[in-house]
Amino acid sequence: MLEFLTSRVLRMAITLWAIVSVVFLATRLTGNPIDFLMPEGLDAASRREMIAYWGLDRTVIEQYWLFWRSLLYGDFGLGLMERRPVATIFTERLWQSASLLVATLALTIGVGVPAGILAAIWRGRPGGSGVLFAAFLGYAIPNFVLAILLLLVFSYTLHWLPSAGSGTLLHYIMPTIALSAYFIAALVRYTRNAMLDVLSEDYMRTARAKGLSERAIILEHGLRNALIPVITVLGLQITTLVSGAVVVETVFAWNGVGDLLVGATIRRDYPVLQFGVLVVASAVILVNLLVDLTYALVDPRVRLAGA
């Protein structure tokens, strides 16, 4: 187990280094952010002074070295626009994004798993076909298109829900639905397939022969053995969920990390963008690591193969 964990942590570190390095180099190819920070008509001397102040007059290699050295000392820099520590800026936005992700994950599990079980039980019936059709729609409609449709119907036409912001529980409804639709569809399909595999097993027939109730057979014997692929899919969905939240937050003007990253990209706010990528990439990689560990604990063959 220690060898398995060591190999996974090493891969995680290499992946994180590669992602942050690519983003660092890519941002340097987009132009000088001073042109966005300073007003038009700025004289050349003041421009050079600002470039030197932010260390942008150094070579890319020097900036890269200083960037990683600062990270090792826990110094993540100041935002170019707000001129405050980027860690403080992100902390102020993190709760909004985290609460939206938790609500989305809860809705995904609360709807996806039961719907997948029903689709398996109702296989070949109209109810099962209806569940699969709804899942197909969830796959087919991109989250930003669904978000715009929800805005047009429930905000601009019916005036039932607020169109932007994150102040009340009503603000959570449309972003949560838009963000979770695709993931619910995926979870329905994987849960259904996993349940179909276990429903035909001998131990399920044995449980029925013992006179157990159908509910106990499905939940205690069927679902428990079908959870391994479902857990894997959930882990992969969480990683995709983090990236998908960026678009949804922008559509609904959600005051979260995704909206912050989009704004930093447009304004070329290098420190904010680099720290944001570092945080998001770390979260995604950490979730993948936890999924691998969970899988390895459940199935020793995975642990041996990984080692």
Overview of the structural elements:
The chain is an all-alpha fold. Helices cover 79% and strands 0% of the residues. The protein has 13 helices and no strands. The chain has helices at residues 2-28, 34-37, 44-53, 60-72, 86-121, 126-140, 143-157, 170-199, 202-209, 214-251, 257-267, 270-298, 300-306. Helix 12 packs across helix 13. The radius of gyration is 24 Å and the shape is flat. The chain starts with a helix and ends with a helix. The model has no long low-confidence stretch (mean pLDDT 79).
Name the poorly predicted regions: none
Count helical runs: 13
The end-to-end span amounts to 8 Å
What gross morphology would you assign? Answer: flat
Quaternary structure state of the chains depicted = single chain
Radius of gyration: 24 Å
- The portion of residues assigned to helices is over 70%
